[in-house]
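Inputs:
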Amino acid sequence: MSSLSIKLFGPVALIALLHVSSCTTTNQRPEVNAPTKSQPQLEERAASLSRKKEAVEKFFSPMTVREGDWLDSQKEAGETFEQYIASDPTLPTPQRRTIYIQPIGTFDQKQRQAIRLTAEYIGAFYDLPVKLNADRALGNVPADKTRRIAYRNNLQIRTNYFLADVLPKMLPDDAAALVAFTNYDLYPEETWAFVFGQATFSERVGVWSLYRFGDPATGKTDAKLLLDRTLKVAVHEIGHMFSMKHCVKYECLMSGTNHLAETDRRPLDNCPECMAKVAWAMNYDPVSRYLDLAAFWEKQARVDEARKFLEKAKAIE
Ligand SMILES: [Zn+2]
Ligand SMILES: [Zn+2]
């Protein structure tokens, strides 16, 4: 990162660069897609999903780009459902289809609740088994992978400690991914201020921090905001693990984000193109998916969210 870019663009550019690291990691194939259905069956399913996209278009807004947003500085082409299929994406296999969530460190009650609900949401979103592991202590972090920064005098842990030292050793054979959540602030390299999270897709592991998900305006943690941010980041990054690219057509959970306000603006769901990708990749009936997601929000007493998913289910039935 050049200091010039920081001087020119200020903190926004800095955050953009940081997010790039968590979102453009090379997606080397950890496994090959082993189709279990014949080609005509796959093509028929793809064609059927392609037709369903239109029915839910009205629930999504076209992408708008404001100053400082992800697409204000990143040039991206996006990816249609059809392009995704043609890209031969990395998919879960019968042997590797469980998403493991690993809390590391200590959490307050709201953070713990956000992690538990995020695990549940991932299950409904991708129709994959999700296992929430018991808490794990941070362990002895080597001195060159920890530092203190002046701002809030906070302790930071280098992402590499999790991605190289801790997580690969504990990756189960049946894991599609192992995602760690921590409350420690993270940094990827000495020259960077912080990072929200980072993943190495070849190793199928990632780490995300909840540290900055509270509301900086009030200094308090709003439980709803914390949950939405935690699950948006987790669902987005898991989408990348299954080769999904950033979305540029709609305001979508799979669109890149540059700052938390942009994350907050995104819906809690995938746009029609990305809905079709998930339904195809996971062989997940999109009506069942919308109903499962509606049920999740009903349990949280988030009636508006539940209603939107019910309406989408009805629209594509
Ligand atoms: Zn991304
Ligand atoms: Zn999308």
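Residues 3-23 form the longest helix (21 residues). Flag for discussion at group meeting.
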